[in-house]
Specification:
Layout (H helix, E strand, L loop, with lengths): L24 H4 L8 H13 L3 H6 L16 E11 L2 E10 L2 E14 L2 E9 L1
Antiparallel strand pairs: 1-2, 2-3, 3-4
């Protein structure tokens, strides 16, 4: 499902509990930049869930950004933010591939440039 076709009234995939239209949709559309590293991380999770590679690349810091991104057939099942302090966000993202469930536990680092936050890198925990 693309960001444009995801129903605005449905809960945002990022797990915030608010409708998509009032949460990550303005970020994915480019209307509003993420205000904090946690907001950027949540919007990036939503971009993975909605297969929005363009947003993921645009919010990835130029120093660590891959040339391209292939999203595949991953079904994203949920996100839990465990801790958000300063420029670091620790989270667990649950997903399913080939019928098997997995959990990614990561501590991501973000950097702010010209008033915008970018994903720099992450370490699995």
């Amino acid at each position: 499902m693309s960001p444009l076709s995801y129903p605005a009234f449905k809960p945002c995939p990022c797990g915030s509990g608010t409708p998509y239209a009032g949460c990550c949709a303005p970020r994915l559309s480019g209307q509003t930049p993420a205000e904090t590293p946690e907001a950027l991380m949540r919007s990036r999770y939503t971009a993975y869930a909605l297969q929005d590679a363009a947003y993921l690349l645009a919010t990835w810091h130029a120093r660590t950004r891959p040339a391209s991104l292939r999203l595949g057939h991953t079904e994203w099942l949920g996100l839990t933010v465990r801790r958000a302090v300063g420029d670091t966000v620790s989270f667990t993202a649950r997903f399913q591939e080939s019928g098997q469930r997995h959990a990614l536990r990561e501590r991501s680092t973000f950097v702010q440039e010209d008033g915008r936050w970018f994903y720099l890198d992450g370490v699995e925990e």
